[in-house]
Design brief:
The complex is a heterodimer of chains A (561) and B (289). With 561 residues, chain A is an alpha+beta fold. Chain A has helices at residues 2-26, 73-81, 95-109, 121-130, 137-143, 146-154, 187-192, 201-213, 244-251, 275-288, 305-309, 321-325, 328-331, 371-381, 383-386, 442-448, 456-462, 466-477, 493-515, 522-549, 554-557, and strands at residues 38-40, 43-45, 48-55, 84-92, 115-118, 163-164, 167-168, 171-172, 182-186, 225-227, 259-262, 265-268, 312-317, 337-340, 353-355, 361-364, 402-404, 407-409, 482-484. Helices cover 40% and strands 13% of the residues of chain A. Chain B is an all-alpha fold and 289 residues long. Classes of the chains: A alpha+beta (561), B mainly alpha (289).
Chain lengths: 561, 289
């Protein structure tokens, strides 16, 4: 892993020099004949093509009926109804491969696609540096439809990474506050041991102690434990198998691996006071066997298999995690999972979690002249989220929804032609995730409060498992615990040099303390060293970036105020 | 040949035990994969499958072969491997045969080839070259860049050199041309070497995934290894997804296992047919004289 990052760093360095050389020789050839397409009744005639780059994630790669990336139900729809053909000309696999391909395209060896979804802040920065991406301040102001403007107005910080000297070079991909995490607990274990779901750290300790020592599965063997989570990548995974609740119980809003705005100054969570108490707790629990023994080697997805097997009693993650672990109800007779809110902190506040506002940003080729066409298409994609227009139930009947006996269904096995899983049609164009305006689960909250399921979004939410629905409702009710990372800019110069060492040191120290291989005081040494070995400079630079990012009022320039 | 002393016997037992362990270390992961591919989803996500299927079913295989992407990728891979190996072997045999002779400038030429083995232009120049040649999105982008490998050339040259000169001279006297000598004498005599080098190239083509992802801008043109790379690599922190329920629909482990298993089968099947050549080893020619 480490070696890989190094490689990419080297690639990018070489790449920058290559851009300098290649950029000069090939910059001029891009003046293609402008399409004479005219917008008539919401359709372009003759149709023209928008080329896009795409990171092919696992879900986006599945097509049914022999459809492909460039010829599927959504691309055909765009061509027929809008006169816009979406064509992928740059395709990457996982994140690092995709970034490499984008960098390679920057060398000028081929034409950069019109629309570039970029998921890496360093790459965003390099793209702006290269001068090959379009400044879109005016375009947003002129062409962005009002209902989408309203969305972007809610999330001004998502523009921070793409603003340079008062100019805007991109926009967040479908911004929307993500759902929060919930505690999934083996309800049958709680019931058997006559326990209640924990709400404080003391109660939490009692429950996991009981889950470990009092044989909740009744097989007479001491083969269960309380709490499973992943400590492999960080102690704040942000989505599944997350232990961040324990840290937040002691540190409040200062989450590990995350920047928090503390009265106008950004601070780094891992060195905040309170972490030591949290580590002491985890260390104690680990020694007593309440935690999974291999927590430091298990990734977020591995850590849940103990829960699915019926060995662990509590796991924390986003509400859809239930889908991934509900097999325990098949594997173990009588197993039942319930969703609960995360516990309170030691001072009575809620515990906090990291949240995402967007997954990457859109950037555009500087020669791309049809921003109004892009916005036309983008707005249509939002139809499904707003339950309006042609996509009021979903994108395509028989793909992500179907109408059976006059009833809209989202259960793929009940489709007229049954499917194994619904098709993520919303992912087939230029977004990696289907645009949503449901926030951390508003539709579920509404449903729980008796709203009738009459729109596509509501019907879809109502079709989920009850536990998942509960989870989303809890997530929405507690949406004030969601903290987006306040630093979303490119790595600062010092960060590029020392950040990897600092995070490695952090990870090792935390893990060793929990495992009992180092005394608790190692945390103080770590904090001291962290500041000395570059942490202080990083804090300075990050704050400098933050002040600069909030300096110009770009929102007004884009007419988003 | 050896006296059956206690020491020798202890050594033998140790040797057997060690070889069995080494063999198991290679074989068990494959068995685990096979068991997973035949198990139910619930059992796998509960980590309950080791070497025997739990909840036996063959759904994963049915789904795998009904997946047009998988089949297309398999076809691409087969085409690529056959085409790539043929082209590579043609070039290598021609070059190797010539370079096994003494002629003026031979060492300079050889040095050129070896230079490419030690220093390569790197990713960026290769990419620019392939793009500029218009090979992107064609099978040639996968086959041509690696067609000539200096390492394989050295193996072949050395193999050819071990064939007695007298044979060649005799053929000359009988009126054979260089090409007749190559096809009638050198090729049959160096089958072990050719088989081995072919296998190297074949396995290389079959397993390489990075070039597929690099040079193809349509997933339907991916070779099998690239396809598997996008399917099997688990979502992790680095590409943390925003999506709500869509993540939960991640492809099942049993299907992944089936795909990996099916994709390794062809190369495993090729092996027995070539194996008889390199039981004797690539250095067989060394003792021919």
């Amino acid at each position: 892993m480490k070696k890989r990052t190094h490689l990419w760093k080297m690639v990018s360095m070489v790449m920058l020099s290559a851009i300098l050389v290649a950029g000069c020789s090939k910059g001029e050839s891009a003046s293609e004949t402008a399409p004479a397409s005219v917008l008539k009744d919401g359709k372009y005639d003759p149709p023209f093509t928008i080329t896009i780059a795409k990171q092919q994630d696992e879900n986006a790669g599945k097509y049914i009926n022999g459809e492909t990336l460039n010829d599927n139900v959504l691309t055909r729809w765009g061509e027929q109804n809008l006169g816009i053909k979406i064509q992928t000309t740059l395709l990457g696999g996982d994140a690092s491969q995709y970034n490499t391909k984008l960098r390679l395209a920057l060398t000028g060896s081929e034409k950069l696609p019109d629309v570039l979804p970029v998921y890496d802040t360093m790459l965003v920065n390099d793209l702006i540096d290269s001068g090959q991406v379009k400044e879109i301040t005016e375009d947003i102001s002129t062409y962005m439809p009002d209902r989408i403007k309203d969305i972007y107005k809610q999330y001004p910080t998502t523009f921070n990474p793409v603003v340079r000297e008062g100019k805007v070079y991109g926009m967040a991909i479908a911004p929307n506050l993500t759902e929060g995490e919930v505690m999934l607990i083996r309800q049958d274990w709680l019931d058997k041991l006559n326990l209640k779901a924990p709400t404080t750290i003391e109660e939490f300790e009692q429950v996991i102690a009981a889950f470990t020592n009092e044989d909740p599965d009744g097989n007479g063997k001491k083969d269960t434990y309380g709490f499973t989570f992943s400590g492999k990548d960080s102690y704040n995974t942000g989505w599944v198998s997350d232990p961040v609740m324990i840290f937040s119980a002691y540190t409040g809003k200062h989450l590990p691996r995350q920047w928090h705005n503390d009265n106008g100054k950004l601070t780094y969570g891992s060195v905040a006071p309170g972490n030591k108490e949290a580590l002491a707790k985890l260390r104690d629990w680990y020694a007593k066997g309440y935690l999974n023994k291999e927590l430091a080697t298990q990734g977020a997805w591995d850590a849940l298999s103990d829960f699915t097997e019926g060995k662990a009693g509590i796991i924390i993650g986003r509400p859809w995690l239930y889908d991934s672990v509900k097999d325990v109800e098949k594997n173990v007779d009588g197993a039942k999972i319930s969703a609960y809110p995360t516990i309170q902190g030691v001072n009575g506040d809620k515990t906090y979690q990291s949240a995402q506002l967007n997954d990457g940003v859109f950037m555009f080729n500087k020669d791309f002249q049809n921003m109004e066409a892009f916005f036309l298409y983008y707005d249509k994609m939002y139809d499904a989220a707003f339950s309006t227009g042609e996509f009021k139930y979903g994108y395509a009947q028989g793909y992500d929804y179907d109408i059976v006996n006059d009833k809209v269904t989202f259960d793929p096995t009940k489709f007229n032609t049954p499917l194994e899983a619904v098709q993520g049609v919303g992912k087939m164009a230029f977004t990696k995730n289907t645009p949503s305006v449901d926030g951390p689960g508003q539709s579920y909250y509404d449903l729980a409060n008796g709203v009738k399921a009459d729109t596509g979004v509501l019907i879809q939410s109502a079709s989920k498992d009850q536990t998942t629905q509960d989870g989303y409702r809890i997530s929405y009710e507690n949406r004030d615990v969601l903290l987006p990372n306040e630093f979303n800019g490119p790595p600062t110069p010092t960060m590029q040099n020392v950040w990897e060492q600092l995070t490695t040191m952090e990870q090792e120290t935390f893990t060793k303390i929990i495992y009992g291989n180092e005394p608790l005081e190692a945390f103080d040494t770590f904090v001291k060293q962290w500041h000395e070995k570059g942490g202080d400079t990083v804090i300075e630079e990050v704050n400098e970036w933050y002040n600069q990012a909030s300096e110009t009022d770009v929102m007004t320039l884009m007419n988003l105020k | 040949m050896y006296h059956k002393t206690t020491g020798y016997r202890v050594f033998s037992y140790f040797n057997y035990a060690f070889m069995i362990l080494a063999g198991l270390a290679c074989f068990l992961p494959l068995l685990h994969l096979l068991a997973q591919s035949l198990s139910s989803k619930a059992a796998i996500s509960g980590n309950m499958v080791s070497f025997w299927p739990v909840g036996f079913n063959v759904d994963a295989y049915i789904k795998t072969f009904n997946n047009s992407n998988f089949n297309g990728a398999m076809l691409t891979s087969i085409t690529r491997t056959v085409l790539g190996t043929t082209i590579s072997m043609f070039i290598l045999i021609c070059a190797g045969y010539a370079l096994s002779k003494e002629f003026r400038g031979r060492n300079v030429l050889m040095w050129f080839f070896i230079f490419t083995m030690l220093f390569s232009g790197g990713l960026i120049p290769s990419y620019i070259l392939i793009t500029a040649l218009g090979l992107k999105d064609t099978i040639w982008a996968l086959v041509l860049p690696g067609a000539f490998g200096a390492y394989n050339l050295i193996l072949l040259v050395n193999f050819f050199k071990t064939i007695p000169k007298a044979l060649e001279e005799a053929a000359f006297i009988d009126g054979a041309s260089f090409f007749v000598i190559l096809s009638k004498i050198y090729l049959p005599l160096s089958l072990p070497g050719i088989a081995t080098v072919s296998l190297f190239i074949m396995v290389g083509h079959w397993n390489s995934w990075f070039d597929g992802i690099l040079y193809m801008s349509d997933a339907s043109k991916y070779p099998l290894a690239s396809f598997l790379q996008t399917v099997v690599v688990q979502s992790n922190m680095q590409n943390m997804a925003m999506s709500q329920s869509e993540v939960a629909a991640m492809s099942e482990q049993s299907i992944k296992a089936a795909q990996i298993f099916v994709s390794t089968l062809p190369i495993i099947l090729v092996y027995p047919f070539l194996q008889r050549y390199f039981v004797k080893g690539i250095v067989l020619g060394a003792v021919k004289e």
